Amino acid sequence: MDSPFLIAIGLIAAGDPALTETIALSLKVTLTAVSISCLIGLPLGAGLALAQFPGRGAIVVAFNALMGLPPVVAGLLVYLMLSRSGPLGDLALLFTPTAMVIAQTILILPIVISLTRSVVEDLWAEYREQLRSLGAGRLRAVPTLLWDGRVSLVTGILAGFGRASAEVGAVLIVGGNIAGHTRTMTTAITLETSRGSLGLAVALGIILLLITLSLNAAAWGLAQSARGRLG
Amino acid sequence: MLSNTRALLLCAISSLASIAAVPAFAQDFITVASTTSTENSGLFGYILPMFTEETGIDVRVVAQGTGQALETGRRGDVDVVFVHARPAEEQFIAEGYGVERFDVMYNDFVIVGPDSDPANTRAAENAVDAMTAIAQAGASFASRGDDSGTHQAELALWSAADIAPEGAWYLETGSGMGATLNTAVQVPAYALTDRGTWLSFENRGDLTVTYEGDPVLFNPYGVILVNPELHTHVKAQEGQAFIDWLVSDAGQEAIADYQVGGEQLFFPNAQ
Question: What phi-psi label fits residue A180: left (phi over 0), alpha (psi between -120 and 50 degrees) or beta?
């Protein structure tokens, strides 16, 4: 077995179009899923933190538990929904990147909601009097609280990104690992492992880790500079 | 109320679909459920570009075990199934899910095992003898256990040997051929594999072919169009074009030309 590091470097240096396509698709799918999860999850999480209604505790626990939803189960549920024999079969979405976005959104959304709720709850407890004295009600406080908690929130969103970009069970079931169409980094790693090309599989893993590392470094840098400006 | 919810959901997902999946180019395509043996061996990577160039039809292959591939066809999620388990294929057609089965090609199964051959399968008279020897020696055997064509062929051998495979020596991986071979390398264990996957498999470790050549190990592949009367969205014309090409001289030659390490993997046998 050739050194996976050498294979990884060779792949990057060669700029192999199939690899570039796979990386691009992985990023497109996961970043779309992260964006949708934030659009839905940030307001919903903040709302859950500030609202008071019967059954709230159950919902909080449910979202916390859903953070542990096995990806393969999420994939199976989406598969059964989108299959031609399922309720949404007419949309013809099975084995498309959109199906993968839906599955990953189901995986990330509970993380964004739960984390936002927890961050906003803490901030509200801390700044409640202050915000009230400024005349801000619960609803008007939401943007302020989200902005205040942005550093913690970014960490949570990155955790969501990590969960989605690292998982293979869901995208394999709903995407089908079709070459040039729904093949992501993780399904390609699974395929190469099953081909016995372990060196190439590890090389792809290294590249995936490098991408995740760069994104995290960028986010950390942004958070640091934001702190510096305020500091 | 329910239909309202469903309409809303459809609407939300359609708008999501338009954001996330704008196709880069509008081209005809069909989706084919096939087996890990055809995908992992690299056959599709070799022959599909020829078909696409000739017809302009893109082929999207979902590689699954034969059992799962037929189930995907039953649900109408693909246009064509391309698999290797004759009895299961005939049942698929008898149940009305498929139109007609066409012979495409064959390869054969081989028994691989540790080079030391603890069950002495090299001396076996036939494949059933070899399997009996493995069971009697209590030598480890890694089974797919996934209702794939290979798994079904393996179960037929146990049944012919009148052996109920169970016990500590019998390891059901519940995985594809490659994953099962990776397991067999580590144990080390015997395994039944199609020759195509074996020849293109790179992580062989100490494993080698210990038994081959019995006609009972013949492994034919068939291709079937999913019934468009049952699933009206099936792209019958394009799917049939793919089947016609596979059994045509051009398709058959392409299959015969595919080699790994100087060895031909699949032998065309269209009627």
Answer: left
Q: Which of A83, A88, A197 is closest, CB to CB, to B13?
A: A88
Whether residue A32 lies within 8 A of chain B, CB to CB, comes out as yes
Using the predicted structure, report yes or no on whether residue B57 has a pLDDT greater than 90: yes
Report how many Cβ contacts below 8 Å link chain A to chain B: 93
* pLDDT one-digit tens code per residue, B67-101: 999 999 999 999 999 999 999 999 999 999 999 99
Domain tally for chain B? Answer: 2
Best residue in B29, B62, B74, B234 for a mutation probing chain A (most A CBs within 10 Å): B62
* ipTM for this model: 0.85
- pLDDT (tens digit, 9 = 90+) per residue, A19-66? 899 999 999 999 999 999 999 999 999 999 999 899 999 999 999 999
Q: What predicted TM-score, i.e. pTM, was given to this entire model?
A: 0.87
Residues B118 and B248 in one domain: no
Q: How high is the pLDDT of residue B220? A: 95
Domains annotated for chain A, with CATH where assigned, are 19-197 (1.10.3720.10)
Measured torsion, CA atoms of residues B255, B257, B262, B264, in degrees rounded to the nearest 10: 30
Question: Cα separation of A150 and A157, whole Å?
Answer: 10
User: For tokens 């012919």, what's the residue?
Assistant: B160
> CB distance A196–B178 less than 8 Å?
yes
Structure tokens at B72: 């995907």
